Amino acid sequence: MLSISVVIATHNRAMLLEQTLDHLKTQSFQPGDEIIVVDNASTDRTAEVIRRLGERFPVPLHYRYDGAPGKAPAINAAVGDTSGDVLALTDDDVLVGEGWIETIRTLFSDPSLALVGGRVDPRWQHPAPAWLQIEQNGRYSVMSSPLALLHYGDAQELGKRTAVGANLAIRRSVFEALGGFAAHLGKRRGTLLGGEDHDLSQRAVAAGYRCEYRPELRVRHWVPAERTRLRYFLRWFFWCGITHAVIEGAPSSPLHLLRRFLVGVVFAPIQAIAGHGQRAAARAVDAAFALGYLTIRVGGRASVERLGGWSR
Predict the structure, then answer these.
(1) Which domain holds residue 108?
(2) CB–CB of 25/58 below 8 Å?
(3) Which of 39, 60, 100, 302 has the fewest CB atoms nearer than 10 Å to its CB?
(4) Given phi > 0 = left and psi -120 to 50 = alpha, else beta, which region is 206?
């Protein structure tokens, strides 16, 4: 039977992590399964929470400390300590759905499947604001991306889409063959740089591995109130533009990006005045994305470090 290693990176979220682990302990684990929590330089009671819960967990609950900044390198390092055939990745603010582990095991009983991304639904601290349109035509829109939510509709090949790290499973052999997550991507304190999950997904597809989106693999992601403010969305899309430029290496035409930026800046307030809050927000975040992309086009990758304050 396939063994599964659940890998979670955490930083100063002891209370949310405890909820995550409490949900995980009710899963249908089998001999050989395990959970590894990599503590990315937390200063709260994270270690104590893991130690306490580990005493009554149905499978081994391992603790690993990694003081180097960055989620991607922390997970890469933790994977080296795993023994499972399949890596099941989730986050420290996620509640996995009923049968999550068993669904992963069933999906990967097909030896041709290499990577799968699942559905990520919101767990709101407060109701979403009126300007935030999460769902369109039975799936989640681009405006769900800053909240790490994901719903592509029916089961399908991943193609150019992304499987997000809050609900992603991959064969350990494939993860290792791909070299793991790109260490220069992913969240770092001082930035909202992302893209490590998108980059991994696309490298897997490009390498010819079979990658799928499966909506039956479901989790719920915590959405704190501060992440439902337009200011956060503007920062996130700005860093999304930077992320895309870093991944692609050869940014798009500056004139095209400048046009997108100017269109957003001009039409966002017009839409807002007209009472079209959702359209105004969409224009504003598109301008932020173009500005982030332009920043790398003009300033190069070194500008990423200089712009750390944008995430605060």
Answers:
(1) 4-227
(2) yes
(3) 302
(4) alpha
* Statement to judge: residues 273 and 219 lie in one domain: no
In this structure, of 47-61, 156-170, 255-269, the range with the lowest mean pLDDT score is 255-269
Per DSSP bridges, beta strands 156-157 and 210-223 are: antiparallel
Alpha carbon 43 to chain centroid, angstroms? 23
Same domain, 220 and 284: no
Residues 241 and 293 sit within 8 Å (Cβ to Cβ)? yes
Q: Is 10 helix (H, G, I), strand (E, B) or coil?
A: strand
Q: Which 3 state secondary structure label does DSSP give 274?
A: coil
Each residue of 184-204: pLDDT tens digit? 776 665 667 777 899 999 999
The pair of three-digit structure tokens given for residue 197, joined into one six-digit string: 């999950």
User: 273 Cβ partners below 8 Å, 6+ apart?
Assistant: none
- The percent of the chain in helix, strand and coil, each rounded to the nearest 5, is 45, 20, 35
